[in-house]
Amino acid sequence: MIIRRIEVLEPQLANKIAAGEVVERPASVVKELVENSLDAGATAVTVEIKEGGAEYIRVTDNGCGIPSEDVKTAFLRHATSKLHSVEGLDGIETLGFRGEALASIAAVSKVSMRTRTEDDDYGTLISIDGGSVGECVPCGCPVGTNIEIRELFYNVPARLKFLKSTRAEAAAVGDYMLRLILGFTDVSFKFINNGKPVYHSAGDGSLENALICVYGSEISEHIKRVHYDDGYVLIEGFCGDEYIARSNRVQQSIFVNSRYIRSQQISYAAQRAYNTRLMVGRFPFLALKIRISPREVDVNVHPNKLTVRFRDEERIDSAVLLAVRDALEGRHEEAPSPEETDEPPKTVPADIYSVFHASREDRAYSPELINETVGKPEPYQHAAAAKAEVKDAPAPESGEEQIFYVRDSGTAGGVREETDVNGILHYSFTPEKTEEREETIEFDVSPYTIVGVAFDTYIIVEQGDSVFYIDQHAAHERILYEKLIKDELKFDSQILLTSRVINLSPTEHACLMDNIERFRELGFEIEDFGAMSISVHSIPSGIKKESVEKLVHDMIATIKRQGGVTELDLVRSSLIQSACKHAIKAGQTLDKRGIEEILRHYADGSTPLTCPHGRPVMVRVSKRDFEKMFKRVL
């Protein structure tokens, strides 16, 4: 075995190795250079790229510039004007601080930079080729910095080989520019791709105007303003309604002290605020700006500076949850302690003397209607519903079994006070919070009893030692979907009377254009409309015009997730919409026979117990759970 000597790496080789962490792709270069511009106090920044940035990148700003005597030093490793002591790491307020970016970029590209400060009569020009620094020479230029990067990774073929397509790399740069426009609303950004303007923000300080700049004017109709301040953390921005929710987090922009970050923790906290507003697998639109003392957040986690750690993560979770929830509900309050962040369920007591039968006129959904849409299954015997004995309650008509319909008679925004009727105390209670566990719900052909319906939405069924609460809309939606999925859909195109223009994010736009032929095969006629938007002229038959935008976004997400989109993906999306539209709605009254028609489709175990969107059809509460609620067992 040969024993090799330990040697210190040459600076150029060390810079190339370091560049692997800092400079992953053209978007990484743009990120580092623009952060330098912002740290220099720039109020106007122009980014221009060609061929996805691999061939050419230019960043021009009107910042303070670099003194001529410091220009060469700026390209040395660990040379920075933003950090001067170890103590400074505890309160970093600038975007950059490592002093690695310029050295790393210069090591793997050809760089030329012109810069001038306000105190200098002329500027300074420096050229660097693969880490080899040339001499500084005087030049004419305005105050600020203009830096050009050519032939990125020309001397590292292995890195160049792993770059994605030109369109994908340009999209990554565009996506970062989008975040900058939202994060620094008081800075005017211009982004030019292959000579064509893509974004140009006003820099007027308005986040709403910035959102319109990148997402289009339609976004204003679907966002709610977020404002929260508890003295520890300030959260401002916007959250979106259900209409602009997506099947991924591509439309979530989170900033901490103006730094764009990626945080599953914050994203999840915001998601919890939506509770049942969003279907399973949908993620809300977010543009949140979090201000907190720099000493309460650690940005020195990874060289790309996209990950941060908070000193008090639970308090941040609580604040984000309340900030978004208050925006959605139109109210504001201070953040509670972490253990109080989970909102207690809003319960409404069922006063047994206000329970009443649905009138025949209210019974809008008959078994005949259900049979017409889903087909009548084979009947089977089940136990008769037990008659409830209620003092002074009206008796059912002869031959008709009694089903109780519990209406929400509580006041809005709170729980009704306890009432005492005929000496009987009625009150609401919240079941004890039990440890979450995986549970398989089984609802089978054995005898069951229909107990009633709560709030014209939840069918209550007793079977064995269990009570099932069944969402009538979700249950019927699944039945319709299972029938429709068996039918064959043809992918003929239908021409739209007026073309539909859809705004996309840079990455969505690149993905769609790379797969444009696949969309055409499925019945779409789409053309590039410029500025990260498309124009849709034709859509597949059976797809409603109102659903086109959501469908396009979902199909792009499917392509990015699984590498392609199939006819079945399109069929499912269309059928889910159809089933949801035609299913029995929450709040619509079903009679006993209509309830039975729904239950029969689930009794043989062949129908999935989730709706097509992924929500549960039924929830099971065991006899033991009830005994725990009433403290009969511990």
- Strand fraction: 15-25%
Q: Poorly predicted ranges (pLDDT <50, ≥5 residues)?
A: 333-401, 408-438
Main β-sheet, in a few words? 9 strands, mixed
pLDDT averaged over residues: 77
Using only C-alpha atoms, the radius of gyration works out to 31 Å
Q: What gap, in angstroms, lies between the N and C termini?
A: 69 Å
Principal-axes geometry comes out as elongated
Count of helical segments? Answer: 16
In which range does the helix fraction lie?
Answer: 25-40%
How many E strands? 28
Class from secondary-structure proportions: alpha+beta
Would you kindly provide a written description of the structure presented here, covering whatever features stand out?
- By secondary structure, the chain is of the alpha+beta class.
- It has 16 helices and 28 strands.
- Strands 1, 2, 3, 4, 5, 6, 7, 8 and 9 form a 9-stranded mixed β-sheet that branches.
- Helix 5 runs antiparallel to helix 6 (207-215), helix 5 runs antiparallel to helix 11 and helix 7 (264-274) runs parallel beside helix 8.
- The longest helix is centred in the N-terminal third of the chain and has 18 residues, at 166-183.
Write out key terms for the chains shown.
single chain; 9-stranded mixed beta sheet; 16 helices; alpha+beta; 634 residues
Fold blueprint:
Blueprint: H1 11-22, H2 26-39, E1 44-50, E2 56-61, H3 101-107, E3 110-116, E4 123-129, E5 132-133, E6 137-139, E7 144-150, H4 157-161, H5 166-183, E8 188-193, E9 196-200, H6 207-215, E10 223-229, E11 233-240, E12 252-256, E13 259-261, H7 264-274, E14 286-292, E15 297-298, E16 309-310, H8 313-329, E17 363-365, H9 367-374, E18 404-406, E19 419-421, E20 424-426, E21 449-454, E22 458-463, E23 466-471, H10 472-484, E24 493-503, H11 506-514, H12 516-521, E25 525-530, E26 533-540, H13 548-562, H14 567-582, E27 589-590, H15 592-603, E28 618-622, H16 623-629
